[in-house]
Amino acid sequence: MRLHHLLLALLFLVLSAGSGFTQGVRNPLSCGRNKGVCVPIRCPGHMRQIGTCLGAPVKCCRRK
């Protein structure tokens, strides 16, 4: 029974540590940290969207 608790704690630790890497770009500060720029319309052809800035209409774009 102790082994089950240990394995459950280990699983929780692994999953919680990995969750930080799944957070997206959602504000201008994190956009800039990821070498992106906030664009009020679609990303230009030489850029791709990596997230949003201040809501859905404003895109965070980075060079391809």
TrEMBL record:
Alphabetized InterPro entries for the sequence: Beta/alpha-defensin_C (IPR006080), Defensin_beta-like (IPR001855)
Q: Which GO terms describe its biological process?
A: cell chemotaxis; defense response to bacterium
Provide the primary localization. Answer: secreted
Q: Report the subcellular localization.
A: Secreted
Recorded superkingdom? Eukaryota
Annotated Beta/alpha-defensin C-terminal domain ranges read 31-61
**Pfam families, per database record:** Defensin_beta
Q: Which GO terms describe its molecular function?
A: CCR6 chemokine receptor binding; chemoattractant activity
Q: What keywords are assigned to this protein? A: Antibiotic, Antimicrobial, Defensin, Disulfide bond, Secreted, Signal
Q: Which residues form the signal peptide?
A: 1-24
| GO cellular component terms attached to this protein's record | extracellular space
How is this protein named in the record?
A: Beta-defensin 1
Species this chain originates from: Cervus elaphus
